[in-house]
Amino acid sequence: MKETLRKHLEKLISLTDDEFNAIFSHFAIEHYKKNDFIFQNGKPVKNCYFVLSGLLKLVYHDDLGKEHIVSFSMEDWWESDFYAYFTQTKSTMALISLEETSVYSLPIENYKSLCATIPKMENFFLQKSNLGFIGSQQRILSLLTSNAKERYHILLKQHPSLLQRVSKTQIATYLGVSRETLSRLHSYK
């Protein structure tokens, strides 16, 4: 598992063994069963998470109690309620494991320490943040400008394995369509 994190980091930065060992000491491993809450709405968010194995969903519940799936996070992805994490405020979302999941957690203090003491990590997190902003903007534009069929095909193209791992009801919620609409879209692939 340790090598999984190193390979992930080295996609963007090069590391010596000493640098990686110093970085690795800032992380803790956590394991979750299916349907466990990693954090809940209204609670402080103490960590961001790097997914080693398993699948997570980040959800927002509106005032009427309707669930909105903000994102799914699978292996080799980072996830958190980043607003709450960086501002150290209470979460407006919940992070839930959809499968048995193992993650490396990174407390905000350790994140700040890594950025202050290992400039390569500050660069790494900047690059990951930029990629995250790009992904968020693309998702927002897709929701604003694409019809349900187009959004479904984008999801199929970008994350085909997700359809094997997530229920159709959750895929429909993520796409902002009814379960019935998703069934029609699925039959017209």
Report on this structure:
The chain has 189 residues and is of the alpha+beta class. Helix content is 48%, strand content 23%. It has nine helices and eight strands. The chain has helices at residues 2-9, 17-24, 82-87, 108-117, 119-145, 148-158, 162-165, 168-175, 179-187, and strands spanning 28-32, 37-39, 47-53, 55-61, 67-74, 78-79, 94-97, 101-107. The chain has a four-stranded antiparallel sheet with strand order 1-8-3-6. Helix 4 crosses helix 5 and helix 8 (168-175) crosses helix 9. The protein is globular.
List keywords for this structure.
9 helices, alpha+beta, 8 strands, four-stranded antiparallel beta sheet, 189 residues
SSE layout and pairings?
Layout: H1 2-9, H2 17-24, E1 28-32, E2 37-39, E3 47-53, E4 55-61, E5 67-74, E6 78-79, H3 82-87, E7 94-97, E8 101-107, H4 108-117, H5 119-145, H6 148-158, H7 162-165, H8 168-175, H9 179-187
Antiparallel strand pairs: 1-8, 2-7, 3-6, 3-8, 4-5, 4-7
Brief description of this entry?
This protein has 189 residues and is of the alpha+beta class. Helices cover 48% and strands 23% of the residues.
Number of helices: 9
The proportion of strand residues reads: 15-25%
- Can you give the mean pLDDT? 91
Low-pLDDT runs of 5+ residues are: none
DSSP strand tally: 8
Shape, principal axes of CA atoms: globular
For the biggest sheet, the summary is: 4 strands, antiparallel
How does the helix and strand content classify structurally? Answer: alpha+beta
Give the H and E element order.
HHEEEEEEHEEHHHHHH
Termini, distance in Å? 37 Å
> Looking across the biggest beta sheet, what order are the strands in?
1-8-3-6
Helix content: 40-55%
Whole-number radius of gyration?
17 Å
